[in-house]
Design goal:
Helices cover about 30% and strands about 25% of the residues. It is of the alpha/beta class. Strands 1, 2, 3, 4, 5, 6, 7, 10 and 11 form a nine-stranded mixed beta sheet that branches. A two-stranded antiparallel sheet has the order 8-9.
Length: about 230
């Protein structure tokens, strides 16, 4: 029986590529700080390849645990550069994505996958260098029997994702940038990068972080005292 609450949305808003490229160049940690330390998905999502980073509009998949039918359906509405965001409606460790889906994603130009569940065929995925951030590696297979939805709001790894939000993922993790705020966040992250590079040059010259960032005054406020040695 069809689920009347299930839907596949064909069209979603997508930001212009320049904003996505700017966010990608800033990286997850800088973006997370630039947007007031929000949007960071659960740290259990880990990449297969530390050298790969991606950014792109989210195509979201809501599905039953252990059933990847809707993931197959989602590929039809993806465009090159999109990032698949798969969020089972209950906890799942099943290997919901493997080398065959990875091959299809490669052919379609999909930028990467973020999945709050398991993956398998890991050696093949690594060899094809398809970017994946997943909760676990698990060989357990899936069914294809349950209705779900594509391109609806989801909660993935404890963060809400709307279709078209920008997903940025690298070795530090995965961060969600709301589409409406993305242009401003990209600018703030770029400015932060410039400041960090200036700070890095001062640190490489030998300056201490405690002086560079004014932490001595903070220590005084907290009542931390310096002594030459610990006395009895």
């Amino acid at each position: 029986m069809a689920d009347t609450n299930s839907v596949i949305v064909r069209n979603i808003p997508r930001l212009e590529p320049g904003v996505v490229k700017a966010l990608l160049s800033s990286g997850v940690a800088t973006i997370h700080e630039a947007q007031n330390r929000t949007g960071l998905m659960n740290e259990y999502l880990r990449p297969l390849d530390r050298e790969i980073a991606v950014a792109g509009p989210a195509v979201t998949v809501s599905c039953d645990p252990g059933d990847n039918l809707m993931l197959h359906a989602a590929l039809e509405v993806c465009r090159p550069g999109d990032v698949l965001v798969v969020a089972p409606i209950a906890p799942s460790n099943h290997g919901m994505f493997g080398s065959l889906l990875g091959s299809s994603c490669r052919a379609l130009g999909i930028a990467g996958l973020v999945i709050d569940a398991g993956i398998r065929d890991v050696s093949e995925l690594i060899d094809m260098r398809f970017p994946v951030w997943a909760k676990v590696i698990c060989a357990q297979g899936t069914t294809k029997n349950s209705a779900g939805s594509v391109n609806v709001p989801v909660i993935c790894a404890d963060e809400q994702v709307f279709p078209g939000d920008i997903i940025v993922a690298d070795f530090d993790g995965v961060v969600v940038v709301p589409a409406a705020a993305a242009p401003d966040i990209a600018k703030m992250a770029a400015s932060r990068q410039v400041r960090e590079q200036q700070d890095r040059q001062r640190l490489l010259a030998g300056e201490l972080t405690i002086d560079l960032y004014g932490f001595r005054e903070k220590l005084r406020e907290l009542g931390v005292n310096y002594v030459d040695e610990l006395s009895d």
